[in-house]
Amino acid sequence: MTISRADEPPDEAEPTAGPPAEAGGLVVERPTDLMRVEGELEALAVELRQLAPDSDSGVRRRLSGVVPRIASQLAEATGQPMRRELHMLFGWLDEEGLTADELRVGVAGLLGWVEGVISGLRFAVAVSMRPAPTDVLAEGGPA
Question: pLDDT tens across 4-19, in order?
Fold first, then answer.
């Protein structure tokens, strides 16, 4: 799988899509790329659901070639701690000869991971936009 390892720096030659976002100390370097890849994973999941278990091995081979490319795009969009997690959880998707069921599980897992990251980002943005609480007692309010 072409998921870059956590100790590899991201390719600085590529422009980033959107400013980096942070959620719980984890950095997403390209949040717009992450959202685009989420759409690709959703479309791939639909295709895999329609794939018959006894389908042509050429179809499975082509689809299994798409999964590592998408995982690589996810790695490029995220910071190093998240790349490490992605590699740890989904490195097995690089194996040759995955069955249709294994592809379905892998894509569902990747999609769930991406949705979790995006939810975390949305939460972090919502919290950062909320006004800070004021200390009523320090201001001479009711005791």
Answer: 444 444 444 344 445 5
